[in-house]
Amino acid sequence: MKRNRPLNEEKRKDIIKAAIKEFYNKGFDGSSMDSISTIAKVSKATVYKHFKNKEELFLHLASIFKERLEEAYKYTYDSKKDIEQQLFEIAKKEMNFLRKEENIKLIRIMTVVMVQRSNVGQKILDNTKDEYVTMTAKWFEEAKEDNKLHFEDSLFVAKQFIGVIKSFAFIPQLYGAEIITEEEELKVITKAIEMIKTMYMAN
Fold first, then answer.
1. SS3 assignment, position 125
2. pLDDT digits (tens, 9 = 90+) for 148-189
3. Which terminus of the chain has fewer Cβ atoms in its 10 Å neighbourhood, N or C?
4. Within 10 A of 196 (CB to CB), how many other CB atoms are there?
5. The model's pTM
6. Terminal alpha carbon distance of the chain
7. What CA–CA distance (Å, rounded) separates 18 from 51?
8. Residue 117 has pLDDT above 50, yes or no
9. Whole-number pLDDT of residue 1
10. CB–CB of 191/166 below 8 Å?
11. In the predicted model, is pLDDT for residue 8 greater than 60?
């Protein structure tokens, strides 16, 4: 039984990759378990062994996306570290998430389904919401408590900071633009940090 585990895991990964490709190309309604099994080069029975239906498979992709998103936006405030250095590290983690083509595909897939407000889309909305913004706001709140930054609303400042990054490295890519270069990435991060320093850095 143990010998089958790595093979089963590989097949599961193949199914997930195939599902991302299929949902990306055809959307949720246009995709089928048959076509996903064909792309993954496994039997339909194997697909159903791992996922009982198309909705469960799609929601599993949403859970993968959520895990990646949470990891990308997870930071711990460090009072011994320079604020500018920490802001750079935060922005870099977010950029690394947004620079991966598969993550961009997942974002596009989830966005379309959520906009349609179907039952599946509503489940995704209920499960994700704006947790990543809240996680960023927590870091800003701790920086404020440490008297390194001064502002009234940490959630507002978090949205400002994330907004600068997303406006260059997320929204254009959502509509098919190329992923930004490392040089462009550094420029965006630098400008985002300058904005925070200029507006909120304690004297």
1. helix
2. 999 999 999 999 999 999 888 878 877 777 888 889 999 999
3. C
4. 21
5. 0.78
6. 64
7. 13
8. yes
9. 43
10. no
11. yes
Average pLDDT (41-55) is 92
Backbone angles phi, psi at 201, to 5 degrees: -70, 135
Q: What pLDDT score was predicted for residue 9?
A: 86
Per CATH, the number for 1-52 is 1.10.10.60
Fill in the amino acid letter for 74.
K
**Rounded average pLDDT over 189-194:** 96
The CATH number of 67-200, from 3.40.50.1360, 1.10.260.40, 3.30.2110.10, 1.10.357.10, is 1.10.357.10
Q: State how far the Cα of 19 lies from the Cα of 102, in Å rounded to an integer.
A: 12
d(CA 92, CA 129): 22
Give the alpha-carbon dihedral of 60, 112, 138, 161, to 10 degrees.
140
CATH 1.10.10.60 segments of the chain:
1-52
**Cα(188)–Cα(203) distance, rounded to whole angstroms?**
24
Measured distance CA(49)–CA(52) in Å, rounded: 7
Comma-separated ranges of CATH 1.10.357.10 domains in the chain? 67-200
Nearby residues of 54 by Cβ (< 8 Å), 6 or more positions away: 28, 31, 32, 33
